[in-house]
Structure formats: structure tokens, C-alpha cells
Amino acid sequence: MLFPLIVWFMAFLIWFYWYNIVALFSDTEHKAKAVPKSETRSERREKPQAAPAEKILDEERQKLDDILKRRP
Fold first, then answer.
1. Is residue 57 predicted with pLDDT exceeding 60?
2. What's the pTM value of the predicted model, to 2 decimals?
């Protein structure tokens, strides 16, 4: 009666720790991967905001405003 519970528990542990078990038997190349550094909030605030990629000239902006005003 207790044997099936032990088997299921062992299967669950193997499933849960599968990546750790595989990492034990894998090459060291996979362990040496560099983790990218994430930016902190203060670093994001210090960086200047990038200028918009596309600038609309004043003449074009006025033309677009006139077109929008003419629409019903």
C-alpha cells in the first residue's frame, strides 16, 4: 500500500528537480553562461531619453491639422 505512494513521490521529485539533475551531468560550458545585467530604476532615470525617430515639420503638422479640421 505504501509502495505506490513512494514511487509517485520519487517521480514527482525527479520531475520537479529535473533541470538541476541534468545540470549535474552536463558540460561546464552551459554553466559558464553570462547573465545579462538588468538596469536599475536609478540607471534608467539617469539616461537621457532618446529623441523620437521621426520628426514632423511644422508645415506638415499644420497641413495635417487643416485636413483634420476639414473632416466632418
1. yes
2. 0.37
